[in-house]
Specification:
This protein has 151 residues and is an all-alpha fold. The protein is built from four helices and two strands, in the order ββαααα. The protein has a single domain (26-134), classed as Up-down Bundle (3 helical TM bundles of succinate and fumarate reductases). The longest helix has 29 residues, at 25-53. The mean pLDDT is 87.
């Protein structure tokens, strides 16, 4: 039975999470999680206050409400930041869980590929919806359009 060899305390260690030049990507991922978490709390509480507390509450949220809100670039950017930060934050968290619990390399690669694919599809489609949303499409019947189209 052999005794495990403990490396010298100041021995150079190479890690797979370091980029060339000694930049530790996991440290940046950890830091991003803290910063994005704080920003998400502010964005989400602002979103909830505007949508649920101010005005008539949840009963007022309909197609016209969203159309009126997204006619402002401010709310488009707000919702876009919330989407991107939440998706990056969540994807980074799930990536960490996959790295911690998926023991086989093939399983880890497959799960992370599916995760990144879901991330890209959700962010691309969400971004397209936010910036191409048209509450009053030309040529639509008047009885199908919300009241904001006639003001």
């Amino acid at each position: 039975m052999s005794t495990p060899v403990i490396p010298e305390p100041r021995a150079k260690v190479t890690r797979s999470n370091q980029m060339p030049g000694g930049i530790n990507t996991e440290m940046f991922a950890w830091l991003f999680m803290r910063i994005s978490g704080v920003l998400l709390v502010a964005l989400i509480f602002g979103h909830l206050i505007v949508n649920l507390v101010v005005g008539e509450g949840v009963s007022a949220i309909d197609f016209a409400f969203v159309g009126g809100k997204w006619s402002s670039p401010f709310w488009q950017i707000w919702d876009l930041l919330m989407l991107w930060l939440a998706m990056i934050h969540g994807t980074n968290g799930v990536r960490t869980i996959i790295n911690d619990y998926a023991e086989r390399t093939g399983t880890r690669i497959t799960l992370k590929t599916l995760l990144y694919l879901a991330f890209v599809i959700t962010v691309v489609l969400g971004t397209l919806v936010i910036f191409t949303f048209e509450p009053c499409p030309p040529g639509s019947p008047d009885d199908l359009l919300p009241s904001i189209c006639f003001g």
